Predict the 3D structure of the following.
Amino acid sequence: MSGSTFGRFFQITTWGESHGPALGCVVDGVPAGISLNEDMIQWYLDRRKPGQNAMATPRKEDDRVEILSGVFEGKTTGSPVSLMIRNTSQHSADYTEIATYYRPGHADYTFDQKYGFRDYRGGGRSSGRETAARVAGGAIAAIFLKELGIDVCAYTEAIGPVQIKAANFDREAIYNTPSCMPDKEASKQAEELLRACRANKDSAGGIVACRINHLPAGLGDPVFEKLDANLAKAILSIGAVKAFEVGDGYVAAFKRGSENNDAFAMRDGKVIKATNHAGGILGGISDGDEVCFRAYFKPTPSIARTQHTVNKDGDEIDIEIKGRHDPVIVPRAVVVVECMAALTIADALLSNMGSQLSGILSFYHREN
Ligand SMILES: Cc1cc2nc3c(=O)[nH]c(=O)nc-3n(C[C@H](O)[C@H](O)[C@H](O)COP(=O)(O)O)c2cc1C
């Protein structure tokens, strides 16, 4: 199986299955000298952890990260940082039936068609649990970006039809509400909606928004390594994400050019845009404005309702899925989106180092 690596200069490789002994991430390309310890990574992992509230699966994982390499005396050494998270709450027996049939909305059928063999316990590599490994790796990217003053902030914008109100935006609420919404009122409404979903043996989808601030202009390349193309790949690689949009996104298709263009202006000797319909990226290159995008998540595919499907012998059957599942994926995926965005930006920053002679000269001709 190939395809477990993301990034060119700041690169992660994730490994492990949902119900194996452990999963983890190797992060290559981390600059030496970044202050790093397990607690700093743990802050990100705790935001993804299951079993925390009524909106998440009751599967309880400690999700304690262990740093196995690449850090000495509290600083990165420049060598690969290897991270491991032990699985401690596997209920593999819940999944034995899945070996014989294909769960609707899951990768069971396609995995079998491709590999002819699958680790059916909790979805193996296709499990949402794989994202714990990316969050561990992405946390290092986010910590690196903080050194440069770059702020990556993802949050829940909607759960089903419940949307946040811009006027209520409260950043702290992202970290304090079970929905990860920056709007406490909307969060309460979302809790109601999910209670009804659960009672109805159903699930809901939603939207994660992400804003990246203090990003310099010039990140991304104009052809195959466009910043928006790489963000799209990063975000669409997260299970259950069905659409990605930058700035005004799909709405731009219904507007006139005169409405959609962002006029340029001068402020304090600097070029700025009067509006930001573009979402901070023009021609695949960051323009120095806030980069903003959205990820659209489908409803959790595992639902308690009876569903119609097919087994491996080709019989049509009715099933009831056992196991512990999130009634909505979005709140736990917020930090996954944030970390994948951080990884993409860290990679673009390092790739940009050689774009101009003046930058190369100032690096190699520096005094110290
Ligand atoms: C953080 C996270 C948690 C997830 N938790 C669950 C879950 O509890 N139950 C479930 O059925 N799917 C869950 N998923 C979604 C499935 O992994 C995903 O829908 C499935 O592998 C099929 O992939 P696709 O939706 O991209 O086609 C989760 C995804 C993420 C990102």
